[in-house]
Fold this sequence. Notes:
The protein is mostly beta strands. It has 2 helices and 18 strands. Pfam families: UreD (PF01774).
Amino acid sequence: MSLRATARIVAERGGALPVLESDGPLALRRTGIRRPEAGARVTVVGAMTAPLGGDRLAIEADVRDGARLTVDAAAATVALPGRTGERAHYDVRLTVGEEAELRWLPEQLVSGRGSDLRMRTVVELAATARLVLREEQILGRHAEGPGTLATRLTVRRAGRPLLDQELSFGPGVPGGWDGGAVLAGHRAVGQLLVAGQEFAMKPVEPESLGPTACLVPLAGPAALVTAIAADARELRRTLDEAAARLGAG
């Protein structure tokens, strides 16, 4: 039987979490020491194996005006095939208010062989909101091929489009996703998006961050780092270095 589960977080100024609702495999835990000036930290702890084929999971986070929230995870999310062969869905919906900050830093999403997952992330930013968002996809577990994975990240700032990007990998995906023009045999892909008022005053310049990563400015204001790597460790190192460079470490 497939799962339907939605976990919810509401963060308010001073580190308050009036809503922290876990559901099914999505267990949310408040972590770290509560300090009003630092905001709140929530860790996603997997309570069972998910997503499997046919599952529909969702996480919603609402960071209200003036609040600060960091969301991370205790372990990677591993997409696996289910008994029915159906596609799984994982939806993330994030809202960040005026003068608020969200640091969305999950662990890697691993596309296990035989799985089929569609992941959608939608972010609504107020005009003065700040966002640090990291996404990492690992195509296949050790010594195996990947499943089919489609991800879409849509970010709007003050109601206007900031970024709308879709990636698709794995069996059945057309377009030479594993060829030299896309992944070139790499099995880890990720991005780091940093949006904030600091980029209005001093936009970043486009540049290469080594042979398999690049930094580009976005209108909005924001900066986007995109990287591919041989494995999860190399990808994380690249994105961590980019975060430090952008003042988001």
